[in-house]
Design goal:
The complex is a heterodimer of chains A (157) and B (799). Chain A is of the alpha+beta class. Chain A has helices spanning 22-29, 86-93, 103-116, 122-128, 140-150; strands at 2-7, 10-15, 48-51, 54-57, 70-72. Chain B is 30% helix and 23% strand. The two termini of chain B are 41 Å apart. The chains are: A alpha+beta (157), B alpha+beta (799).
Chain lengths: 157, 799
Amino acid sequence: MRVTVTVNGTTETHDVEARMLLVQYLREVRGLTGTNIGCDTTSCGACTVLLDGESVKSCTLLAAQADGEEITTIEGMAAPDGTLHPIQEAFHQHHGLQCGFCTPGMVMAVASLLKEHPDPSEAEVREGLEGNLCRCTGYHNIVQAVLSAAHSGELVP
Amino acid sequence: MSATVLEGHGTAGVVGTRMLRREDPALLSGEARFVHDLVVPGALHMAVVRSPYAHARITSVDVSVALGMPGVVAALTGADLAGEWASPMPCAWPVTADMQSPEHLPVALREACYVGDAVAVVLAGSQAEAQDAAAAVAVDYEELPAAVDLEDAARDGVLAHLDAPSNRAYTWELIPDPEAVRRAFDDAAVTVKERYVQQRLIPAAMEPRGVCVVPQPFGGEYVVYSSTQIPHILRTMLGMTAGVPEERIRVIAPSVGGGFGSKLDVYAEELLCLALARRLRRPVRWSEERSEAAQATIHGRGQVQDIELAADADGRVKAVRVHLLADMGAYLQLVTPGVPILGAFLYHGTYDVPAYSFTCTGVFTNKTPTDAYRGAGRPEATYAIERAMDALARKLGMDPAELRRRNFIGADKFPYSSVAGLVFDSGDYEAALDKALGLVGYEALRQEQAQRRSDGATKLLGVGLSSYVEMCGLAPSRVLASLHYVAGGWETATVRMLPTGKVQVVTGATPHGQGHVTSWSMIVADKLGVPPDDVEVLHSDTGLSPLGLDTYGSRSLSVGGTAIALAADRLVDKARLLAAYRLEAAPEDLELSDGQFAVRGTPSTGIGIGTLAFEAFTAHDLPEGMEPNLEASATYDPTNFTFPFGTHVAVVEVDTETGRVDLVRYVGVDDCGNQINPLIVDGQVHGGIAQGVAQALYEEASYDERGNLLTTTLADYLVPAASDLPSFTLGRTVTPSPSNPLGVKGVGEAGTIASTPAVVNAVVDALSHLGVEDLEMPVTPERVWRSIGAAAPVPGGAR
């Protein structure tokens, strides 16, 4: 079937299999491999992207469901000149990543979280990121990064 | 601290600072490439047909239907592939001469020995086609009784392998003086006898495994991309097992999404992709799915621990006696049998114990093979002794902090020759304990605990301690030889300056999240007096770094980092000779400061190391006999292990009505010797704590009685989320290791080792006045709630 999807500001139309997942579409059709696949039960959140500004797990949606929609992936977060998005910068400043595999999904989840809760408490950050697993950081520095990003302003993805 | 680490060189002064990681931008922007991200035109996708039975005779495998399915290029059985293997899959650690090791082939021939054991493979043009066809492979099984329970298996009630004489893999003993142990128990005023179960754990690195083997069209080389911690060891083992000359294999580990030991192995899928690429002369790739990972990637832990302590009336421990049953799973993977042995020397923990007895029996079961998982043997040892110390404290009516203090190896006793035969390099255990107790506010917590108890509160407070010492920096090669490990424990490095003054570091250590590029560039920057950004680190590719022993056992810094520092020293030595020639001075009169060699006291007339690099490159005018270029290598074989230590304190609230445990505070004080980058040290400790807490409270690889793994997804296997954990308070003491010139010890496993017993001790501590003495891990609300119901309150409410 034919889908037209805007990803990181670029609109393309492709024929895809009806069963193709959004994450497969992003990785295989659009070549955007920053979005990772960490599980097969929508548990880990590594594949989190923004659909019209809200976080979704792209393994839970079909590519067809994104037809006509706007998707933002991790590749769309930094400025064109390579300047990191304030959330990415906060992760860097606070050592909020180690192996980096969960990081793209985590950053996208944070973008959505901070849009909903611009000034979250630590507990709200922890609850808000419940759907994104990280095995390296113990979340400590991720939480610090999110709290710091929340206070840095300029967070609209 | 920091200034002393690299004293005597051109210090730019970054070592010891919280320098931000150089790895981050590529990982944060999605630019980093993991194996699954590689685009390889023409690659065939492999799917593995796996046994749904824990133990079964394979009576027939019919691939004919699969072969006719769309996109399928090949479908092969174990028999079809038997000719591909020069030897069975490797186990590098035959811990005893009589160790039993059942033949382990990448695809089973006649007998499937765990749920997930490979019985056939399918290759197709896409992953979906391969998986569809794999489902159409018809395998006839004759289900056999499965050895599932570890203790039953140890009694040989059911054999895990049809042809094996027993389920015993080996029995390994360390009993330096049996008579002393017997006497200590005979004379003891107090003894405790505890049994602990180390449940099986699924490592669950966030990146599932992936392999892609690309045969090169000319020259017969194979490029093996694998999400591995051990490209160097893998290359050698692939060559030996698949019968490919080692020099024709180039292993590349691109970005690797966590390992924790689970990628410290040689796996069937790596061998299969190589053999199939050879057979079909096409690239072959495999991407593990999460449910597959739960079965086909090694598990950790899996032990039943019997530990006894003999103590005098003052609580001084006089002997420790331990017997382990260790679950090998169905086969011996790369270092499976050695994992319990890595803990064998540490069951007396941080305590000065004169008599010691350790025995371990490795037992086969029809379950996923176990192998090294973060800490590998040392978390198990620390758990047993730290839980047993709390049991002893309860029996004596003594504060657990006081009992530990009484038994610590004194700071004045280092280097300390342990009863188990190790020499602990340095330590001040009491200082770490004091710092941890201070940070957590121990006395106030004890008062609050008593208050809540006397108020009859339903949310009780528990405080759990864990003082640990671990052995890291694997490992002195001669010691490995004495333990029958087949390889050495050195690490190698090359440091070279390029014509423009930029620096390359080549290392055999292989990062997968630890920030090696940052730390190595800091070390070299300080040695050479150049900015860290001018230092490029080449790693994880046997084409760039042909020799190395990779990353595990908290070895990268203390062994690999030391090799880098030594190579940098040698480069500086050569540069000094060239500088002396240029400046017409004696080499010993020169000092290197901020990258400039100058005669001591006259810094204005110096010459920069970058200039020297260019002159060494042009080689137009070098001293007689000096070779061109500034480049030096070093291989460092440690003389001893390193012994990081510390004390962690967990504070829990236990709801007596629901059994819910909330970890409300956590303090970790660690001593890993000198720190290159405390930011990275903190991160390692945070993640380690989380993994240890996960064992204490959340995670277990559960099997049913027929050997079916019940926790195959992240919906069933409870890797903790942010909401399941608190923030952590960290502290540090610094006791440099005298064993290596950096004075470093290693920190990758410390948090995992310390935290599990701290948390369980805290839960038991919360409930001890109710008569609860033990809780099996994971300490679930149900277990807590049942234990409260089953326990008999302690008269007078003693701790």
